[in-house]
Every structure is written in structure tokens, then in C-alpha cells.
TrEMBL record:
Species classification: Bacteria, Pseudomonadati, Pseudomonadota, Alphaproteobacteria, Rhodospirillales
Pfam family, one: Alpha-amylase
Top-rank taxon, per record: Bacteria
Domain Glycosyl hydrolase family 13 catalytic: 106-561
Annotated source species: Nitrospirillum amazonense
Protein name from the UniProt record: Maltopentaose-forming alpha-amylase
PANTHER family, per database record: ALPHA AMYLASE CATALYTIC REGION, ALPHA-AMYLASE FAMILY MEMBER
GO biological process, one term: carbohydrate metabolic process
SUPFAM superfamilies linked: (Trans)glycosidases
InterPro entries: GH (IPR017853), GH13_cat_dom (IPR006047), O16G_dom_2 (IPR045857)
Length: 644
């Protein structure tokens, strides 16, 4: 078996498969086959070595490896011509996602625009803002009823019917590509819905599908695992296992591993069939035009007794094997790791060199800079920039070909405990209470969410509410202006960090919390998953409104950012030394360096930086600046460049 054997059926599907396909297969294919051969030569040995390491003991592993090679080769030859050409263009500029003209936008399809076709109709709105990267939260067929916002997938091969059909996804991908945008989708790879056909078959007693999951058969083995596991949703989904009598054998008992909700069954990646299934899901979606996969809950993929089952070496090998195989079949497709863990551990999701153990870009191209996001919120609450400065130093170890996803808010809670290794528990608790509006003098309008054990409860709420904006607030009111300044600061700092910034839906119009009425009980994250307010968006050019003031200022920042080469994300942001405690400062090096200085406090300050050049300019306000005596108003941020 080799790629050659895939030829006949592959040609057929290339000819029939894709609207934009114009060239005849016979004229194109020789060069595509040749470039496939080159990619196999280059990436198959990596994939094979990782798969052998993962699945050495599995019977018939040799046959299975041949099948894997065939699976990716077939997908490569089936890749629609416009996507293969897109791969070639992307590979010619491999740092495209690190450029300062890139901006992401993250949304739930239904909340933003009802359906996939609705999203397509809003591409103009997004393009006007400067968006170049769409992250649509889960949109594959989901379990009916509770489904964790679609993170309980019932069928990876179908679109959720409420949102559209497969044709709508390919149409959206094509329209996005035409508008200069990339499309990112979640692949919920750690678990399936209890209603997924695999889980149904397992419950019906099919041993093949039972082996897709982790089934435990005694209370002792459950307790032994629990002893070293953490909990993600300790209040709404305590424990990591769910009794499932249908899985019991011979009159015994059975529990299924459910790290998240009881209806989210963790997949068993020690079973190569599971690895293969998810690989085929990735290949299938890649050939629909998806450019980036957000690998949901990446740290949890592999389990081993006596560990926390987060970020085990095998987890990294699984992701690295997917990357190598995608590099064969869909070479410009990117992987985005979702690991909300200690900042030092997040870096490991970019990859490591096996020989040296040093960071290397062989795993996820993108990973969430959760640490910096959390540290910025913490800094505004405490007026202390030190943790953010410390993080900038730690995070500078990022491999240069990989990039952070930088962000102010996302669809999840802000998890203070992710900073537990850096920040005292007492501070984390205080900040958590501050954002719940529960400390004296707090302006925040958020809510506390569940905590694991003695940890600090995490925080829910839209960014605009967390900075204290009331839904009816108008510019000119002192508290509204202060709230908008804080929100703009969070975005201005984030847009200057190294990485691909992703805006969360509604933040561009300073959208506040969802109405409390109708929120699902117990799941406070819906507080920050409101419907897009298109009436408010219609005010986005009206400076008499909070939405208009904020949108105008943010849009300007996005445009200025695109012109500043140093804000492209190759080199990390470096903290500036010698600043007062309430001032965050960092430098982005480049032919023309950019300094970012942010006053995290409500008091005006004058800072003085030693400088050899005397001509400096505020790149946004376009005014001259004296760096030796620079006034910064409350929550003011400046991007500073050398003049001339
Ligand atoms: C992710 O988040 C998603 O972003 C959530 O929306 C889902 O509910 C969840 O997975 C289950 O699919 O704990 O609080 O280290 O922190 O996977 C959010 C990664 C989460 C986890 C992360 C998870």
C-alpha cells in the first residue's frame, strides 16, 4: 500500500469535489503527487517515530502504520485545488499569522449571527474592523439538551443543523478566504458527547467502541485515580468519573472517565483507533477549508495512574504526530493548543526538541497566552505590574516560529488559579472577589465561578462589565469614561504583545453581560455569552455612545498596529526595567522599535525613561513625546516610536 494506490478514486473526487476546481486533474496531478512525495519524505519519519513510541505494544501496529500513511496520502491527493494553492501561498510566507496586520475574532455562530450563512453575511462588518481570522466556537452536531456550548460533539462529520449544513461551512470558508481571512474551528478532541454514535455503541455493549473510552470497573480504581486528579468544574460536575451501568459487564459496576461534564466522555488515546478517528476528522475538516484547529482541552488527552493526567509526554506526542501528518496532507493548516495551565507548562505545547529537551516549534503553532491575559486583569485590580513583567520574561522562551494567541476575554471564565505558581493565594482570592464586585471600592460587575478546593473562584463576565461599564453608560460620565479607558487599555496592551490577538465577540462595541433572566442555572459562563447586539453595533460610529467611542478608538489601534512592523510577533515582548509599580512597560524590537507604556492605576503619573534619542512620538495620537518626563493619565496607554 502506498499513495500510488489511492490514485483512481482520488482523481474522481478531485474532479467532482469542489466548485473552484478548474484545471484538469491530468495537468495538475503530477506536480501535486511529486510535492506529496516530498512532504512524505520530510514528515512521515517524524510521524512514524511518534506513533511507534505511542503504540509500540499494539498488535498489528505495522499494518496500522501503513494505513495511516495511506490515510494522509489520500487526504493530500483529495485536497481541493484551491486549498492546495492556498497551502503553497501560506508556505511561502510561513510567518503570516505573526504579522501585525492579523486580528482574530471569536464568536458562537448562533449568538453572533444565527447561522453560518448569517456569519457570511457579516464578513463585511468584520473586515471593516480589521479582522483576518475567524474563530467560530463549536459548530459540529452537538448533543441535544445540555452540551456545554457545543463542546459535547455528537457527530464530527455533520454541522449542527440549527447552524447550517456542510455546504454552508465550505461556502463560509471560501468567502472568508476571498476576504483575506483564515477560518479556525474547535476540534473537541478530548471527549465526545454521551450521545455520540461511538458512546452509544459502547453502551449497547460493542467492545470495539467500549475501548474508545476509559471504563473503570471498581470503586477502588476510581478512588485511586481521583487521588491525583484535579477538578475542572468542581461545583457543577464534581469528580472525574460518572457511573454508567450500561457499560458494566457480568453484573459488575462501571464508571466512565468524564473530566468535564458527565455527558462528555473522555476518549482513550492509548487506543490507536481513537487517534485515527480524530486524525480523519482533522483531515476531513481541513479539506473543507478550515485553516486552524483549536484542539480543545489539549493537556488532558493522555491518562496515567498516579499523575494529574495533564500534559503527560504522550499527550505531546499525540499532538506532534497530528502535526506531522497534517503537514503531509494539508501543509499550511495550523494547530492551536488550548492549555490553560501554569505559564511555564503552556510553552511545552509549542513543542520540544527530543534530543536537547529545549523548546522547538514541532507541536502547536499557536497557544493561548492565558497567563498574560490573567495577569493584566490582575494588574488593573491591584495596580501592580510586577507579575505581568515577570511573565513577559518567562514567556520569552517561545520558539520564534510559533505564536501566542493574545486576548482580553474568551468564552470561558478567567481562571486565577492558573497563576497559582506565581501569585500568592491571598492575592488571587482578593482579585477574584474584586471582579465579583465584592470588595470595597470595586467597580467590577462580574461574578464568581466555581473553585477547585481552596483555590480562588474564577470570574465570569464580559470584559466591558468587568471594567465596570453599566449597560446604559454614556461617554462624559466619569465612571463610564474610566471604564472605557480600562477596557481600551486592556486591548491596547494586548495588541502590542507578541502574538495573534483574538477579540471576543462584542468587546468591539463594549458589550456588557448577558441579561440574567434566562441564563442556565449553575453555568455562570453564559453571563459572558450574550447575543450580539446589532442595535448597539449600529451606533459604532456615534461618539455620543459608549459603543461608538470604544469602537472608534479600538479600530484606530488596529489600523495603527498594522503599520508597526515591530508589533509583528517574531521577537517576544521584553519588559522595561525601572518603572514605578503601577506602570507596565515593554519593548517590541524591530527596525523601528515600539515601546508600550501603560498606567494601570487611576492616578496620573509622570514616568521618566533613560533615552539616547530625544525625538519620540506617540504612534496613535501622533504627537511628540518627551520620554524623560512622560505624563500618563489614569489607565492611559501609549505606543511610542522613535520620531522620523
Ligand atoms: C475548554 O476549556 C473549553 O474552552 C470550555 O468551554 C469547555 O467547557 C471545556 O474545554 C470542555 O470541553 O477548563 O474552564 O487546560 O482549562 O480545556 C475551561 C484546558 C476549561 C482547560 C480547558 C477548559
Amino acid at each position: 500500500l502506498s499513495w500510488k494506490h489511492a490514485r483512481q478514486p482520488v482523481f474522481l473526487s478531485i474532479t467532482l469535489g469542489f466548485n473552484g476546481m478548474t484545471s484538469s486533474p491530468s495537468s495538475r496531478t503530477p506536480s501535486r503527487a511529486e510535492s506529496l512525495r516530498q512532504r512524505l519524505d520530510r514528515h512521515w519519519p517524524t510521524a512514524e517515530a511518534l506513533l511507534r513510541r505511542l503504540y509500540a505494544g499494539v498488535p498489528d501496529v505495522e499494518d496500522w502504520l501503513v494505513r495511516m500513511r495511506n490515510v494522509v496520502s489520500t487526504a493530500a491527493l483529495n485536497r481541493p485545488a484551491p486549498l492546495a494553492e492556498r497551502d503553497d501561498r501560506r508556505l511561502a510566507e510561513p510567518d503570516w499569522f505573526q504579522r501585525s496586520n492579523q486580528l482574530g475574532y471569536c464568536f458562537y455562530v448562533d449568538r453572533f449571527a444565527g447561522t453560518l450563512a448569517g456569519v457570511q453575511a457579516r464578513l463585511g462588518y468584520l473586515a471593516d474592523l480589521g479582522v483576518t481570522y475567524l474563530h467560530a466556537l463549536p459548530l459540529l452536531a452537538m448533543q441535544a439538551g445540555d452540551n456545554d456550548g457545543g463542546f459535547a460533539v455528537a457527530d464530527y462529520r455533520a454541522i449542527e443543523p440549527r447552524l447550517g449544513r456542510t455546504e454552508d461551512l465550505t461556502a463560509l470558508a471560501q468567502a472568508a478566504h476571498g476576504a483575506g481571512m483564515a477560518l479556525c474551528l474547535d476540534v473537541v478532541c478530548n471527549h465526545t458527547a454521551r450521545d455520540h454514535a461511538w458512546a452509544q455503541a459502547a453502551r449497547a455493549g460493542d467492545p470495539r467502541y467500549r475501548a474508545y473510552y476509559h471504563v473503570l470497573e471498581s470503586a477502588e480504581s476510581v478512588a485511586a485515580y481521583e487521588a491525583t486528579l484535579g477538578q475542572v468544574f468542581p461545583k457543577t460536575a464534581p469528580g472525574n468519573f460518572t457511573p454508567e451501568p450500561a457499560l458494566a459487564r457480568d453484573g459488575g459496576q462501571a464508571w466512565v472517565w468524564t473530566t468535564f461534564y458527565p455527558y462528555q466522555w473522555d476518549l482513550n488515546y492509548a487506543n490507536p483507533a481513537v487517534f485515527q478517528e480524530m486524525l480523519e476528522v482533522l483531515l476531513h475538516l481541513a479539506n473543507q477549508g478550515v485553516d486552524v484547529f483549536r484542539l480543545d482541552s489539549t493537556p488532558f488527552l493522555w491518562k496515567a495512574p498516579g499523575t494529574a493526567c495533564r500534559g503527560l509526554p504522550q499527550t505531546h506526542w499525540v499532538v506532534r504526530a497530528w502535526r506531522a501528518l497534517l503537514a503531509i496532507a494539508a501543509p499550511a493548516v495550523l494547530l492551536k493548543g488550548e492549555a490553560i495551565v501554569d505559564p511555564d507548562d503552556v510553552v511545552s505545547f509549542f513543542g520540544r526538541d527530543d534530543a536537547t529537551g529545549l523548546p522547538a516549534a514541532n507541536e502547536c503553532h499557536l497557544a493561548y497566552n492565558n497567563g498574560m491575559m490573567t495577569a493584566l486583569w490582575l494588574a488593573q485590580a491591584t495596580g501592580d505590574a510586577a507579575p505581568a513583567h515577570a511573565l513577559l520574561d518567562r514567556l520569552a522562551v517561545r520558539p520564534r516560529q510559533a505564536a501566542w494567541i493574545t486576548y482580553v476575554r474568551c468564552h470561558d471564565d478567567i481562571i486565577w488559579d492558573a497563576l497559582a505558581a506565581l501569585i500568592p493565594q491571598e492575592t488571587l482570592h482578593r482579585v477574584s472577589a474584586f471582579y465579583a464586585g465584592a470588595t470595597p471600592g470595586s467597580y467590577a460587575l462580574g461574578a464568581a465561578f466555581q473553585a477547585d478546593g481552596d483555590g480562588a473562584p474564577s470570574t465570569n463576565g464580559m470584559a466591558a462589565s468587568l471594567v465596570g461599564l453599566r449597560p446604559e453608560g454614556r461617554p462624559g460620565e466619569a465612571d463610564t469614561d474610566a471604564a472605557l479607558a480600562r477596557l481600551l487599555q486592556l486591548y491596547q496592551v494586548t495588541l502590542a504583545l507578541d502574538g495573534l490577538p483574538v477579540l471576543y465577540m462584542g468587546d468591539e462595541i463594549a458589550l456588557t453581560n448577558a441579561p440574567l433572566a434566562g441564563l442556565p442555572a449553575g453555568e455562570g459562563r453564559w453571563l459572558h455569552r450574550p447575543d450580539m447586539d446589532w442595535n448597539r453595533a449600529a451606533e459604532r460610529h456615534d461618539s455620543a455612545t459608549a459603543a461608538g467611542t470604544f469602537h472608534t478608538a479600538l479600530r484606530r489601534l488596529i489600523r495603527v498596529r498594522a503599520t508597526l512592523d515591530a508589533l509583528s510577533g517574531i521577537e517576544p515582548a521584553r519588559p522595561l526595567a525601572g518603572l514605578p509599580p503601577g506602570i507596565l512597560g515593554f519593548e517590541r524590537v524591530g527596525a523601528r522599535a515600539v515601546l508600550c507604556l501603560a498606567n494601570l492605576t487611576g492616578q496620573a503619573v509622570t514616568v521618566s525613561l533613560p533615552t539616547t534619542t530625544d525625538a519620540w512620538r506617540d504612534a496613535v495620537a501622533e504627537t511628540a513625546i518627551d520620554l524623560t518626563a512622560l505624563p500618563l493619565g489614569p489607565w492611559q496607554t501609549r505606543w511610542i516610536v522613535a520620531a522620523g
